[in-house]
């Protein structure tokens, strides 16, 4: 009798943790301090004003230490709804917002409301590996959706992949890992495709605060009955440096959130209260500071694009650069997972290979690398480019 695999055995090890193991195994160059561009996370704590507020809350706000509502702090849900009205237009109400323990939990909660065993979700390739892992562990199938030379998914390709088991299409914009921003018309076209086929569009906008355009990234919240088709995901981690507090959000119909509540009550009961109070304070008080953070991240992306010529001269190719990420083709004969390990010991650089963002055996993934550049200042980006340019075949 053949035993079925347990859910966790159906997927791969966490890529960022795998990359950290390379550090323990590598002989690091003594004259090259490590440049870690493997993880999309701020390395600095929240600004001092927010830390002081967190300290005050810890001392003076009893509710920060107690259970709260499963779907999140009511005032934070209301604040998200109000700020979304300004940012996107259309109609958004507090009962269409849920607060989650990070954006990954929001994705897992979403697919829990959608999928039965063997159902399918289309994921553009390269994909965000935690989305693939979540689908594996749910007993669902991640269907690779090819992207074009600009790393944008195509409507006609998606149409051809839809089957009777397809339940959703999941997009990430600005994209992780590719760094590209999906044009509003493309996002709208995917919404229309999902609506026409009775699918759900899962739109992960974790990096929306670092979009290069000040205009609304799409008009989906102005569509009639948008909550029937759209589940938008968001994270407070990147905007306010709250990664360790695990605070995310999802925006969809109140009816879907009633199903989401079942999942969240089973997994975490409620999001961490202290992080929610901090996120609320940040939304109300750190608008100007966040604008400065956005400007700095955009400047770093510009530094990658403007400084890439030395790598291009050696056969590297910049495929996308935006928000926290640059996505590149390397010029070497070996596959990217081999090159990534070499870069640790030869260049003092830790980055993730494209094989971690593509289906097993994918030829494109073997030529690609992701650079999470947001933790480097412009001088650090110059140093990174210089080190990579000096790596020999």
CATH architecture of the largest domain: 3-Layer(aba) Sandwich
Number of helices: 14
Helix content: 40-55%
Tally of DSSP β-strands: 13
Strand order of the largest sheet: 2-8-7-6-5-3-4
Structural class by helix and strand composition? alpha/beta
- Assign an overall shape: globular
Radius of gyration: 21 Å
Mean pLDDT: 95
Largest sheet: 7 strands, mixed
Number of domains: 2
How do the SSEs run, as a string of H and E? HEHHEHEHEHEHEEHEHHHHEEHEEEH
Indicate the low-confidence ranges by residue numbers: none
CATH fold topology of the largest domain: Aspartate Aminotransferase, domain 2
Q: Could you name the CATH homologous superfamily of the largest domain?
A: Type I PLP-dependent aspartate aminotransferase-like (Major domain)
Quick one: CATH class of the largest domain? Alpha Beta
Q: What percentage of amino acids are in beta strands? A: 5-15%
Distance between the termini: 50 Å
Sequence-ordered SSE layout with sheet pairings:
Elements: H1 15-25, E1 35-36, H2 48-60, H3 74-88, E2 97-100, H4 103-114, E3 120-124, H5 129-137, E4 141-145, H6 155-161, E5 166-172, H7 184-197, E6 200-204, E7 230-235, H8 237-240, E8 248-251, H9 254-267, H10 273-285, H11 287-306, H12 309-312, E9 317-322, E10 325-329, H13 336-347, E11 349-350, E12 352-353, E13 368-372, H14 378-389
Parallel strand pairs: 1-11, 3-4, 3-5, 5-6, 6-7
Antiparallel strand pairs: 2-8, 7-8, 9-10, 10-13, 12-13
Helix pairs in contact: 2-10, 3-10, 4-5, 4-9, 11-14
